[in-house]
Amino acid sequence: MKANFQVDVKKCIGCGMCLNVCPGNMMGGDVLKMQDGHPIMVDENNYSWRGCWRCQHCLAVCPKGAISIFDINPEDVSSKPSNNIKEDLPKLMKFRRSCRAYKKDDVPEEIIDELISAVSAVPTGGNNYGLEFTVVSSRKAMGEIYRLYKEENGLSLFDENQDDYSELRIYDAPHLFIAHKELGDRFKDGGISEINFATAYFKLVANAYGLGTIISTYSAELLTKSKAIRDYLHIPENHRVFNVVGFGYPQYPYQRGVKKNKKTYKIK
I want to staple 14 with a disulfide (CB 3.0 to 4.6 A). Which of 37, 47, 178, 222 is the partner? Predict the structure, then answer.
């Protein structure tokens, strides 16, 4: 894949900020350099520690929106959040609750797509592209999961008359979000962190959309030990799953956050 690094020379002011934030340059590589007053990419096929990390830092930092890369233009990406974020984000984190009662309504596909687009920006070690997501986006698909489990194990995971998925420890959430990745021997702990980061990011952004969420480690074990369910969810056999997020519209919306204190050490 060629980076297709492009610069609008009419907008570029030659500030060199893109060179300064480039991880490949920081690692001692020769990725971006100035030529005729604007940046160029030396080797658009070099993806290594001293090459392009595919992070798009160059596009993100440019003060004039002069840089495009991987056929992504400045107008294709989100702008900087407003100053309200410093008040709203801490409030959201304190407001977040685990939801154990959901409405029957499915979350619209376009909203789910927006959630996934946001979570796709989750940090990964070395801007690694191995992290994958599976989303169960309808109650119909949830029903198929339970059918597969019953067929394989000869028993039902839930009360079919009540449509209650409580035995899966996601209660009656109509949707699932699952982050998964292959964990090699090298940087294994980093891969585990990436999965957990994605889970936390999804839970937070879903709450920002007014959705309820519940994290379950038990359901991750229950789902992934079944080959039929793994195949249905497009989770490769060599991928690890640690958490499953159930989500949907809460039956009982919360009105305020709570206050929790954690033991904290301040080193001065």
Answer: 37
